[in-house]
Backbone:
């Protein structure tokens, strides 16, 4: 019998407060399976600050430090420093934030932590808006999307911020994207990050049925279609930004197939959907060209 690639240990219970089909809860469950019990979570204001439950109860069986919206990365770095001063070099410290607390409000602390190469794992569970406070636009919200602050008469026209390139510019040792629809890949990436010293950044696509106006049973479907339609490339950046690996071993699906079931895009006309789909393909081709270019440069050193 082959060894199970998904650990059986459960460090997250069922008594959480998330919405039905919440991608962020799926992400946490698999991340903790990969990291194990010697883990401390630092959580800023976000959906997970509510999902975990009210004090003194908790849905996870590891310590959690709740911190201010903008300080997840630097607080995690401080917790790690404190542990090491006490002689604990084994406990993994994870900053666990949404896209609002990563792409926007927490970017300054994350940048400083990455510049110092503090030894933490920073996780952005990316549901593409400020879901906890009422589905407001973030800089992770994709072009064309409805939110409560970008209504259908004035939907978002700017593209999603490229956090991966921003983090790569810091020359940190490990960057990855993942999706809740591919748990074995997600777990592998967390285990890999845990073994690397320095700042590690993992961005997980975590579909939000409430904010995406998507049926809850389609969470995993959406996470998979985002990858196969090339909207959300699965990649790893290693060797301090010098090596890019993009996962391409999948059967491509159409952008329309991904976007149609999501009510947040229901207002878009066919020509607008086609335009966004073409932009997605162009971004994908640029990513592949970058991967090829980096592979062709001799003498790159970590």
Residues:
């Amino acid at each position: 019998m082959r060894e199970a690639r998904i650990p059986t240990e459960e460090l997250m219970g069922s008594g959480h407060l998330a919405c039905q089909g919440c991608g962020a809860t799926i992400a946490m469950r698999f991340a903790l399976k990969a990291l194990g019990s010697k883990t401390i979570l630092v959580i800023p204001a976000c959906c997970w600050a509510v999902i975990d439950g009210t004090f003194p109860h908790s849905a996870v069986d590891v310590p959690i430090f709740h911190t201010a919206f903008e300080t997840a990365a630097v607080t995690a770095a401080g917790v790690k420093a404190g542990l090491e001063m006490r002689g604990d070099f084994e406990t993994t410290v994870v900053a666990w934030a949404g896209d609002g607390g990563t792409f926007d409000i927490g970017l300054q602390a994350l940048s400083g932590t990455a510049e110092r190469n503090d030894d933490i794992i920073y996780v952005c569970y990316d549901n593409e808006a400020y879901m906890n406070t009422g589905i407001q636009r973030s800089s992770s919200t994709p072009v064309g999307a409805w939110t409560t602050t970008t209504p259908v008469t004035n939907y978002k026209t700017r593209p999603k911020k490229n956090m991966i390139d921003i983090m790569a510019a810091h020359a940190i040792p490990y960057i990855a994207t993942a999706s809740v629809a591919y748990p074995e890949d997600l777990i592998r990436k967390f285990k890999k990050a845990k073994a690397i010293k320095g700042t590690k950044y993992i961005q997980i696509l975590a579909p939000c049925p409430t904010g995406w106006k998507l049926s809850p049973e389609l969470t995993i479907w959406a996470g998979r279609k985002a990858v196969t339609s090339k909207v959300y490339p699965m990649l790893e950046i290693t060797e301090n930004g010098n090596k890019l690996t993009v996962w391409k071993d999948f059967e491509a699906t159409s952008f329309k197939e991904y976007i149609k079931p999501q009510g947040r895009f229901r207002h878009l006309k066919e020509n607008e959907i086609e335009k966004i789909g073409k932009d997605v393909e162009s971004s994908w081709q640029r990513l592949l060209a970058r991967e090829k270019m980096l592979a062709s440069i001799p003498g790159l050193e970590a």
